[in-house]
Amino acid sequence: MSESTLHEALRLEDVVPGPSVVTIGAFDGVHRGHQTLLRRAVDAAWRREVRSAAVTFDPHPAAVVRPGTEPPPLQTLEDRVASLYEAGVDLVLVLEFTPEIAALEPEVFLERVLVERLQAVKVVVGSNFRFGHKAAGDVMTLAEGGDVHGYETEAVTLLELRGEPISSTSIRQRLAAGDVDWSSRALGRPHRVVGEVVAGDGRGRTIGVPTANVEPAEGLVVPANGVYAGHAHLGERSWPCVTNVGTRPTFDGTSVTVEAHLLDAEVDLYGQRLAVDFAYRLRGERKFAGPDELVAQIRRDLDEARQRLDVQGP
Question: Cα-atom radius of gyration of the chain, to the nearest Å?
Fold first, then answer.
């Protein structure tokens, strides 16, 4: 967790017991479905004059329960925590998901986390929420626990977009197909890839289109190979950009790279941690006959990106 995070992510032992409205989940991507849960929790806490709390997990539970099957994350943990705070909650509890936590029976989990530490007065979850050993706990288990411990349970139905439920899984699938339009609508913002700018082969500069070679952090989900328009962010600074994801087949490349070209800007980004947003897909990856044909297409890509992003030319 870097010092740039606006609010601190708390561990269980750091939470001061106190009345709370709580929402729980992996919250990968903090998409519009998650945002609905968070709004309901924040509103309920305001009405009751108590704090609102979001409980999330690190690592992903599947990494402990079924190692090797965990999905690639849509966000870094730092960005997930920041997004949760941006949704308005008063505190974010990052629960370290260990084999010991995975082995807890649902009733024990809710007593230790929801009752003892957070003193829940209300719990808001998705209708498909599962928890506890072998995912034996569900909304009914939460409701039964509320009858015993005095908290209310609210289950929220999944949101849909164009007839498809909004979920972290569906967003990953759409990104894998290059559908950044659907994923942006489902997330409520463009998908973002964060990573350090590392040295590349410098070929972009030789053809007049210098790029920042971004090494994605922590196995983040990267959209399908292709060319995209969006914005790059470094701290408080941002630039419209065109980003190529792919193997650079014109030059017989083999490894996938993420290369962002800032529109009409020359900035030394080496060694910096750059965030790249994917707002529009311009085209798929293609192999061209040679550098001249590639450069001609790149110029067309830049013109289209300026139109999509409403950016004036140089």
Answer: 22
Question: In the chain, which residues have pLDDT < 50?
Answer: 1-6
Rounded to an integer, what is the distance from CA 173 to the centroid of its chain?
A: 14
H/E stretch holding 244? strand 237-246
Catalytic residue (choose from 49, 259, 266, 293): 259
CATH number at 190-309: 2.40.30.30
- Report the distance separating Cα 304 and Cα 302, nearest Å: 5
Helical spans, DSSP H, in the chain: 32-48, 61-65, 77-86, 99-102, 106-109, 139-149, 168-176, 180-187, 203-206, 291-309
87-97 pLDDT, tens digit per residue, is 999 999 999 99
User: Residue 68: left (phi > 0), alpha (psi -120 to 50), or beta?
Assistant: left
Q: Structure pTM?
A: 0.91
Amino acid at 289: A
- Which residues on neighbouring strands pair with residue 274, listed in sequence order? 195
Residue with tokens 């090494």: 215
Q: Could you name the CATH architecture of 9-158?
A: 3-Layer(aba) Sandwich (3.40)
Q: Check residue 203 and give its pLDDT.
A: 66
Does 259 qualify as catalytic in the annotation? yes
The residue whose two tokens read 């914005």 is: 231
